[in-house]
Design goal:
The complex is a heterodimer of chains A (987) and B (341). With 987 residues, chain A is of the alpha/beta class. Chain A has 35 helices and 31 strands. Chain A is 34% helix and 16% strand. In chain A, the strands form 8 sheets. Chain A has a 7-stranded mixed sheet. In chain A, strands 5-17-18-3-19-20 form a 6-stranded mixed sheet, sandwiched between helices. The relative contact order of chain A is 0.10. Chain B is of the alpha+beta class and 341 residues long. In chain B, a hairpin with a 2-residue loop joins strand 3 and strand 4. Chain B is globular. Chain B starts with a helix and ends in a 7-residue tail after the last strand. The model of chain B has no long low-confidence stretch (mean pLDDT 86). Classes of the chains: A alpha/beta (987), B alpha+beta (341). At the A-B interface, helix 6, strand 10, helix 8, helix 11 and strand 15 of A face helix 5, helix 7, helix 8, helix 14 and strand 7 of B.
């Protein structure tokens, strides 16, 4: 939307200089807001509600939040502004009484694999500090307690030895996973160490070091059955003669040794000290057996985002990539000659080296190259993918090769395997930091993530896990669910060195944990990746962080914080928001949830309808005022005058079912779930109980794999029966239908092509020989070249927000004047794109192919949208309904389709939910299956069948608690959903 | 006469600065016996070192360059390495000093860094060579003396590494020489490339004798293998170049390299043997650069393949991120003995 600057005609009204008690918005015109004025009480909880598209977010976020943010950023220096994306001035006359504003929206924050719940909440930093302060270190070789000292303390210990004592500073080193010892030796040498001790034997790295047999197999293996051997190795970093005059040199030596030893070191006492002196020294400052000491351990020692502490194999990601046979061989029916492999992995050609190798391997292992992959013996498949170990094959030239290589024939060579070669290339690119190398895209196609075999998912180097608190490492703590962690930390009583600091840190961590528990996130753990969180979970984490900050006088703007919350957890969430208010903040919440609305101090309802029919304040005030207001749809639902009816009869289905067997991905407890087909089915359960895992990770992917792409890898399960009854699966989410203004409802649903064809048949088009591309704003010819079909010109300014102005050439029409001369029943192409859906139904009545599709949009309550409305301006709920409209407009009764929707009521008012249910029921009435993941009781009660997971979230969930009709669930005492549903059905 | 007396008095005064009493007399006599230029340098150096000894932040003084092991001339400089204490405020630096009319190039290096240079990877062969022939003038820290002794010892692995570097350094010049003779018949330019190769070949010769290569390595090598270096170096400089002599020089170089190839490129052959299968040239290059700081190993691999000491192969590669077509990248593999059937 173009923002325009208007002159202020009237002097803004201001109250007296006494403290303001309200945030007063005057003359708001953002998006569909009709120049409204509204007052939001400060230090109160205000809920903004209304139909989808009525202007709630436009008021709360695009006006109040945007203006608050803009004013704050304006106060920064020009220098600071360079680093911050500037915010445009919203189209509002004035906003009084603003505070510094923080918005907490639903967007999933990041897909950055380095972001975890721990880093998001900052608790990871406190945990690192806790371990650095009170963590008990252990020896990497024996596991015995090992002291941790500062380098100054180590220096003083050394200087306490008799003057003239010879000492050697040594750093223990360990084999590098996946690498030969030669690589380790080269690395040690690069760090400036020429001499080493290997199992007590002195070696000079400038000479060839021939490892003993037990040392030679120290490399880790990609197969998990080879364990690395623990050769005891120390690098000699420096030698000194003890004396105060060498203090600086010894200090530098200690620093160098700790660097080489990655925080560990050993002081070897030589000549000049008696045995008693040496024993005393060792006893006071090092571990009993190997005389090791940790030095200068700080919080960064435990940070997986610190390159020095991150696992060397996965770089701190916790996962590594491994090839998957099913991805490498998408079509096992084909033979090697016939191209069973993904083309980039291997293509048989007798004239290439790869071809010769494959032929030689086939000859050695006696398998045919023209047999289907699935028919090859296991041993052959294994060798082709994973190599032949240390065995060799004889190089032979295939008979169909054009050139014989006599110099190679008859020689022996090893074969590492196609899969292992790809993994090696992957490591090679990772090591060189070539994240976007030419191979990256296709490597993703054939590789899957697995837990890093080196750190086992801990993300940090092994020595970091040797620091424990009550026998638990920092990784172990991160794996605990918040409720378990809170209990664990309650039992930790620091003593000794660092106890005071440790207690302070513990107090801070527990306080933050309590906030997270209070908001219903007890099932999460700190190691959980941020990208796996739902929008609601991310939002609640941010909410708890804000409460933890203890800020006062702020304005918080929240977007549907109840999303993703089971009713039993909603209570906690409301209590948390009230707490935010009670510590002295103004809280403004965009919500549809009835409980949250009832808990509000003040309610503002926008409407009365969506889009152009909305943008006004229907009612504002306390709940009783809203209920009394006859014009308020929210009031009608709250008072019970209007409600979503409970079906009198449940459908019986088509007698067929999908059965998921042995589902055990994430927290699912190897459950069997039966999904009857031909019904509206709701999957319910507490937050974190496993609903999305079951439906999205297992069922949807299993169906997709079978029906569309065999390379899809579903979550862990034994199998899905009944797939033969399904011909299509569609996942309808709230993701945008497009990322820029070139996507709109007409292009997405697909009737824009037909509209263009109509324009092409217009007399003027025929005369000028215009083709359909003439009427596309994506193609040169018909579009306005000044704005390239966008309709606006964006100017980037350095210290100010980008400015969008309507294109002066086409005046926003997006097409050039010649194209706009062509009309269809008096309308230009621009007129058609600016037509609302309601208008479109009438205009295209003579073209049933178009009007039928537009009618579906109108039926779904989207009549206010324009046909050419930019995808970027659509809400999630609107985008989802457009997708449903697409499906409805192409409905085929013959192909049984399973539709999957994850919380489709997000962003929907009850009136919108009613319309959504109508459209979903149309799909079921056409014989298809609709599967919903939902918390909304009004939706659950209309389902034909409910599958309730739980009973709780996280480790306490993952089981099937109850299945059956909503009434059957309501009767189940073990089901939390049932408990709330019972009250809802009765009410 | 007066100038001689003046000089004798000056020398005696310098001797007195260095030491006193009978020792000063001995030093005075020693000075008298030196070559005049050498004398002048030594006297100046001794005086400077006496001043430096008073500086407690300097732990040791090491004399490098010509004055330590070679013959100086009038325009020589004194190269001095001073090992300093380890302190944040004391950094590595170069400082040109002035001592009794002579330029002294001084390199200050903290002790920890000095240790790393001595003990670490043989990356900077120039610095290591400098230290290997250096003379420790004094030290306050006995461990520094030990480190200086270490600098003179070069182990077998480091020797292999040096040989590999020298050989990969020489190969391109040898190829160029062949090319210019065959394609252009340009004897002068061919000879020039042979002379470029001579330094690398001289390094090979010296290192093969487990000696430390000087900056001026060719004269060193001439003493060790006069016949070879006379043919490829002295004669090409002094004698008239004919096609025959140039060709013979190239032939003898080829034989020289071929006879030593198994030793010169042992690290490459061992690496390929250990991996057991074909590796692309990029992977091989990358391995040697990352772990041994040796570049352009592919040239050496091509040489070895020509000598049939390793095999040539190819592996698939895409030229760009957007490429859909596949081409073949040069690769190499270890050539085992042929199986007799």
């Amino acid at each position: 939307m173009t923002s325009s600057v208007r002159k202020r005609n009237a002097t803004p009204k201001q109250t007296s200089r006494s403290a303001r008690t309200t945030i007063a918005v005057q003359g708001a015109r953002v998006h569909n807001l009709k120049n409204i004025s509204v007052e939001i009480p400060r230090d109160r909880l205000t809920v903004v509600t209304g139909l989808s598209g009525s202007g709630k977010s436009s008021l709360a976020f695009d006006t109040i939040y945007a203006e608050g943010q803009r004013r704050y950023l304006e106060s920064l220096s020009s220098f600071a502004k360079r680093f911050i994306a500037q915010v445009s001035k919203p189209d509002v006359d004035y906003v009084f009484g603003l505070s510094p504003v923080i918005s907490i929206e639903q967007k999933t924050l990041t897909n950055n694999p380095r972001s975890t719940v721990g880093t998001m909440t900052d608790i990871a930093s406190y945990l690192n500090l806790l371990y650095a302060t009170i963590g008990q270190p252990h020896c990497p070789r024996t596991g015995e307690p090992t002291p941790s000292r500062s380098s100054s303390q180590i220096l003083e210990s050394i200087l306490s030895l008799p003057e003239g004592t010879e000492i050697e500073l040594r750093a223990p080193v360990f084999p590098i996973y996946g690498e030969d010892l030669d690589v380790l030796f080269a690395e040690v040498r690069k760090k400036g160490c020429r001499r080493m001790f290997i199992d007590g034997r002195a070696v000079d790295l400038s000479d060839r070091v021939e490892p003993e047999p037990s040392e030679h197999d120290a490399r880790g293996s990609d197969t998990e059955d080879t364990a690395p051997v623990n050769a005891q190795m120390e690098a000699v970093v420096d030698r000194f003669i003890v004396g105060r005059k060498h203090e600086k040199a010894i200090k530098a030596g200690i620093a160098a040794t700790l660097l080489v030893g990655d925080g560990l070191m050993q002081v070897h006492v030589g000549k000049g000290a008696s045995k008693a002196d040496a024993q005393r020294f060792y006893k006071e400052s090092s571990s009993a057996t190997h005389h090791l000491t940790y030095g200068d351990i700080g919080p960064e020692f435990f940070m997986f985002n610190n390159p020095e502490s991150a696992c060397r194999t996965c770089g701190g990601l916790g996962v590594d990539k491994l090839t998957h046979p099913e991805l490498l061989v998408p079509d096992p029916q084909r033979s090697i000659l016939g191209g069973c492999f993904v083309r980039e992995a291997f293509k048989y050609n007798p004239d290439t080296w790869d071809g010769r190798m494959m032929f030689s391997l086939a000859n050695a292992l006696k398998f045919p190259l023209d047999s289907a992959w699935k028919d090859l013996p296991d041993q052959a498949r294994d060798a082709i993918l994973y190599g032949i170990g240390t065995n060799k094959i004889v190089i032979m030239t295939p008979p169909d090769a054009k050139v014989r290589r006599a110099d190679q024939e008859g020689r022996e060579i090893g074969f590492q395997g196609i899969a292992r070669r790809i993994e090696r290339w992957y490591r090679h690119y990772r090591q060189r930091g070539e994240a976007n190398s030419r191979m990256e895209a296709w490597l993703d196609k054939v590789m899957v993530e697995r837990t890093c075999p080196d750190c086992k998912g801990a993300r940090v180097r092994a020595t970091r896990l040797l620091f424990t608190i009550h026998s638990r490492s920092i990784y172990d703590l991160g794996q605990l669910h918040f409720d378990e962690l809170h209990e664990f930390l309650g039992d930790v009583k620091p003593t000794g060195r660092g106890a005071d600091a440790g207690r302070q840190v513990l107090k801070e961590i527990r306080g933050r944990l309590e906030l997270l528990l209070g908001i219903g996130l007890d099932y999460l753990s700190f190691n959980r990746r941020s990208g796996t969180l739902s929008g609601g979970e991310s939002q609640r984490i941010r909410l708890s962080t804000q409460i933890g900050s203890g800020l006062m006088g702020m304005l918080y703007v929240l977007d549907e914080p109840s999303i993703g919350l089971h009713p039993k957890d909603n209570v906690k969430m409301i209590a948390t928001i009230e707490r935010l208010r009670d510590i002295g903040n103004t809280v403004l919440v965009v919500e549809h949830d009835e409980d949250t609305i009832r808990a509000a101090d003040h309610i503002v309802e926008m409407g009365p309808g969506p889009g152009v029919h909305g943008g006004r304040v229907v009612v504002q005030g306390r709940i009783d005022e809203v209920v009394r207001c006859k014009a308020s749809p929210t009031g009608q639902y709250l008072s019970g005058k209007r409600r979503i009816p409970t079906p009198r009869q449940r459908r019986a289905g088509n007698g067929k079912a999908l059965v998921v067997r042995g589902a055990r991905e994430n927290n699912l407890k190897s459950i069997d779930v039966t999904l009857p087909l031909g019904l509206l089915v709701a999957i319910t359960g507490a937050s974190g109980s496993g609903k999305s895992t079951l439906v999205s990770e297992i069922l949807y992917k299993a169906l997709w794999k079978q029906l569309v792409d065999t390379r899809t890898l579903p979550g862990a399960h034994d199998g899905v029966d009944g797939i033969e009854h399904v011909q299509k699966v569609v996942n309808i989410d709230q993701a945008p239908i497009g990322r820029n203004s070139r996507s709109n409802p007409a292009t997405y649903i697909g009737f824009y092509d037909t509209i263009r064809d109509l324009f092409t048949e217009a007399p003027l088009s025929v005369e000028r020989d215009y083709k359909p591309g003439r009427f596309s704003f994506n193609v040169k010819g018909g579009r306005c070249e000044e704005c390239q079909g966008e309709g606006v010109i964006t100017t980037q300014l350095y210290f100010m927000p980008d400015v969008e102005v309507t294109c002066a050439t086409c005046k926003g029409a997006r097409f050039n004047s010649e194209t706009l001369e062509v009309t269809l029943r008096g309308k230009t192409i621009d007129d058609v794109l600016n037509m609302s859906v309601e208008e479109g139904v009438t205009f295209f009545a003579p073209e049933p192919a178009i009007s039928r599709k537009i009618q579906v949009l109108a039926d779904l309550g989207l009549g206010y949208l324009t046909l050419g409305q930019s995808a970027t301006t659509l809400s999630g709920g609107e985008a989802q309904r457009i997708k449903i409209a697409t499906e409805l407009s192409t409905l085929q009764r013959s192909k049984h389709t399973v539709y999957i929707l994850d919380e489709p009521t997000t962003g929907l008012h009850l009136a919108d939910v009613e319309r959504l249910l109508e459209s979903l029921n149309r799909l079921v009435d056409a014989g298809h299956t609709v599967l919903l993941i939902e918390h909304h009781l009004d939706v659950i009660k209309t389902a034909d069948h409910v599958i309730d997971l739980g009973p709780e979230g996280g480790h306490a969930g993952g089981e099937v608690v109850a299945t059956g009709t909503p009434e059957a669930i309501a009767r189940c005492k073990a089901s939390h959903t049932g408990r709330f549903l019972k009250a809802h059905l009765a009410g | 006469m007066s100038s001689i007396v003046f000089r004798l008095v000056t020398i005696r005064r310098h001797a007195g600065r260095v030491t006193s009493g009978r020792a000063a007399d001995i030093v005075w006599v020693a000075y008298l016996l030196m070559d005049a230029v050498q004398q002048r340098f030594t006297v100046a150096l001794d005086a400077l070192v006496e001043q430096i000894k008073k500086d407690r932040s300097i732990l040791a003084a090491i004399l490098c360059g010509s004055l330590s092991h070679d013959v100086v001339w009038e325009k020589s400089d004194i190269d001095l390495m001073l090992v300093t204490i380890d302190d944040k405020k004391v950094e590595s630096s170069d400082l040109p000093l002035y001592a009794d009319g002579l330029n002294v190039h001084t390199n200050l290096i903290p002790r920890a860094e000095f240790r790393k240079v001595i003990e670490g990877s043989f990356d900077n062969s120039f610095v290591r060579a400098l230290l290997a022939k250096a003379r420790l003038l004094y030290t306050q820290d006995e461990t520094i003396a030990e480190l200086c002794r270490q600098a003179q010892k070069i182990g077998a692995h480091d020797t292999k590494l040096q040989l590999l570097r020298a050989a990969t350094h020489a190969l391109p010049s040898i190829y160029k020489a062949h090319k210019w003779l065959i394609t252009r018949g340009d004897l002068d330019y061919t000879a020039l490339w042979i002379l470029y190769a001579a330094t690398g070949l001289a390094e090979i010769e010296v290192v093969s004798h487990r000696l430390v290569a000087d900056r001026e390595v060719i004269p060193q090598a001439l003493k060790l293998n006069p016949e070879f270096f006379k043919q490829i170096y002295t004669d090409l400089l002094n004698a008239k170049k004919t096609r025959k002599t140039v060709q013979e020089a190239l032939d003898v170089i080829d034989r020289y390299m071929a006879d030593r190839a198994a030793v010169l490129f042992a690290l490459i052959i061992e690496h390929l043997r250990d991996v057991g299968e074909a590796r692309s040239s990029r992977e091989i290059d990358d391995y040697f650069r990352r772990h041994m700081n040796v570049s352009h190993v592919t040239t050496a691999c091509e040489y070895l393949a020509d000598q049939q000491m390793i095999g040539k192969a190819s592996l698939p590669v895409r030229l760009t991120k957007k490429s859909t077509a596949e081409v073949q990248e040069l690769a190499f593999f270890y050539l085992s003995d042929p199986i007799r059937r």
